[in-house]
Each structure stands twice: as structure tokens, then as C-alpha cells.
Write a structure and sequence with these properties.
- The complex is a heterodimer.
- By secondary structure, chain A is an all-beta fold.
- In chain A, the strands form two sheets. In chain A, strands 2, 4, 5, 6, 9, 10 and 11 form a seven-stranded mixed sheet that branches.
- By secondary structure, chain B is mainly β.
- Chain B has no helices and nine strands.
- In chain B, strands 1, 3, 4, 7, 8 and 9 form a six-stranded mixed sheet that branches.
- In chain B, a hairpin with a 2-residue loop joins strand 5 and strand 6.
- Chain B is globular and about 40 Å long.
- The chains are: A mainly beta, B mainly beta.
- Chains A and B meet through strand 5 and strand 10 of A and strand 3, strand 7 and strand 8 of B.
């Protein structure tokens, strides 16, 4: 069955860096767009970034220049490189597969999330 | 700051019908982009509930239905059950922002 599993979260100081990983299984990874969505404690969902089947990336204005999405189709893995982290980046980060059946399709499969805490 | 506005909360008795609105603008829902809906139970990841404005993924009960008109969309839950108590989010694409946008979220309470 389709599975996406995030890892790499943790506590980091303001200005620090972290790399999140997402391991995909149960489907042909290279056939799907993938994305990251975050949720700050007690808050709503926020789209962070997504990537097409190759290397074309899209990022929310709030993270442009600091967070960067990438993928390795040979390793069935998605990544989020996080630099210059701020307190407002504190959130649970979800990896999700984007449906290919609908234009601007939904996030159809989600991982369990990994918590990133930015604090001194 | 979400560009899709939802009511903070709605409530209903078991068996009743409730609706959740999702109001956008001319660069997202009003531009013709489809709307998706998610259910998030406490402490869990969101789950896709409605895609393409009106379609249910396999396994989602037909008590859940979606609609879209103009710059707004709605999610209806009929025959409300205790297990429907959760947060619900709409989502679309915004051409001005060049990315996806989520609604502000609505908490559904079963009385």
C-alpha cells in the first residue's frame, strides 16, 4: 500500500539548519508530484512547497530562499532542506503525494508528520 | 494568512446535516480551480475527503459531499455522527501566489 514516512525533525536553534526526509513506498515514486505541508502548534495547514516529477520546484513566499525541496527518484525519497530557520518555522511537517488524476490535484496520501522546533 | 476563509466552528446534533463554507477570490476558486477538502481527526494527519470539488475517494462515506459555485465552495455532512468530530480544511490553487492555498479550518462539534 502507499506509504510516505517522514524523518529528520528535531530541535534547532534560530538561524540553524535541518534536512527533512520522506521515504516513499507502494507506488512508482517518479510518476507523482510530491509536496510538503506544515502545521504550527494549534494552527491550520500551510502549503510549504512541491516538486514535479523532475526538478521543477515551487515554494511559498514565506519560505522562499530558506527552505528548498528536492527529490531523488532512484531512492524514492523527497527532501526539504531548511536553512536560516526562524521561530515561526516551528511546526509539524507533513510529506504528501499529490494526485496525478486532477489538475492541481489534492494531497492524496500523507505521512504521519515530523516535528521541527526552532528555539534557543 | 489564508486566502480561503472558513467559519471557525460549526455544530450539530447526531443525524443532522451541517455545511462548511470556503470563500475565496478571483485568483483561486473564482478562477475555476478545483477545491479539495480534508478531515483532520485530533492528533492525526489530514485525510483527503473530497477532491475535484465534488468527488469522493474510495472509502469515504457518501454522507460527505462537496459543491462549488463562483468564488466559494461547500462541504456538507449529512447524518452527522460522533466520529465526524474533527477539523476540516478546504484547499485550492492560487494563480497570484503560484501555489496551493488552504482554508482557515473549521472545527465540527457533534452535540
Amino acid at each position: 500500500q502507499v506509504q510516505v514516512v517522514e524523518s529528520g525533525g528535531g530541535l534547532v536553534k534560530p538561524g540553524g539548519s535541518l534536512t527533512l526526509s520522506c521515504a516513499a513506498s507502494g507506488f512508482t515514486f517518479s510518476d507523482f508530484y510530491m509536496g510538503w505541508v506544515r502545521q504550527a502548534p494549534g494552527k491550520g495547514l500551510e502549503w510549504v512547497s512541491h516538486i514535479d516529477k523532475g526538478e521543477t520546484t515551487y515554494h511559498a513566499d514565506s519560505v522562499k530562499g530558506r527552505l528548498s525541496i528536492s527529490r531523488d527518484n532512484a531512492k524514492n525519497s523527497l527532501y526539504l532542506q531548511m536553512n536560516s530557520l526562524r521561530a515561526e518555522d516551528t511546526a509539524v511537517y507533513y510529506c504528501a503525494r499529490i494526485s496525478s488524476g486532477v489538475y492541481h490535484g489534492p494531497f492524496e496520501y500523507w505521512g504521519q508528520g515530523t516535528l521541527v522546533t526552532v528555539s534557543s | 494568512q489564508s486566502v480561503l476563509t472558513q467559519p471557525p466552528s460549526v455544530s450539530g446534533a447526531p443525524g443532522q446535516r451541517v455545511t462548511i463554507s470556503c470563500t475565496g477570490g478571483s485568483s483561486n476558486i473564482g478562477a475555476g480551480y478545483v477545491v479539495h477538502w480534508y478531515q483532520q481527526l485530533p492528533g492525526t494527519a489530514p485525510k483527503l475527503l473530497i477532491y475535484g470539488s465534488t468527488n469522493r475517494p474510495s472509502g469515504v462515506p457518501d454522507r460527505f459531499s462537496g459543491s462549488k459555485s463562483g468564488t466559494s465552495a461547500s462541504l456538507a455532512i449529512s447524518g452527522l455522527q460522533a466520529e465526524d468530530e474533527a477539523d476540516y480544511y478546504c484547499q485550492s490553487y492560487d494563480s497570484s501566489l503560484g501555489g496551493y492555498v488552504f482554508g482557515t479550518g473549521t472545527k465540527v462539534t457533534v452535540l
